[in-house]
Amino acid sequence: YSEGLKAFKVGDLEMALNNYIQATNIDPDFAFAWDNQGFIYRKLNKYEDALRAYQQSLKVEPEGLMPLHNIPVVYQYMGKYDKAVDAYKTLAKKSPDDPEAFFGMGIIYAFNMNDLETGLENLCKAYTLYIAQKSPYRTDAETVLSKIYNQLKTQGKEELFYKILKKNNIQVKMN
Description:
Elements: H1 2-9, H2 13-26, H3 31-43, H4 47-60, H5 65-78, H6 81-94, H7 99-112, H8 116-132, H9 138-154, H10 158-167
């Protein structure tokens, strides 16, 4: 595992992967080694292998957040948006204060599934959590909220935007 970390640090993904595989051959219950395999497979665009590694990590450590964060990302890369949303919902159930679950769902709904309203609802939840956690990712959520606003405005649904923000206790300063 340590050799895998060293190889990854210098950018040798294949060597890192081989070392992580050796680590899980020695200790099949080494969740971090499974997580790192999943990450490398994802970097190598081997998405099915990435999913298998993350699933194995969850078998070892069912509450592991690393695979729960990464499985929906893999599904996004694969264009399997329904599965990505389902995976984000699983993350949200296991970690309800994790804004990344709602941010990810918001992005997928708004920009991949063309459901701006559901996307906006999820992004509002993410934004509120980012604010509560004093996270710098708040600005990423603001950027996406702005994009959704512009799309809704173009569609003549500006009032819907404000209605959803109000429902989520988000106040907007008008210029």
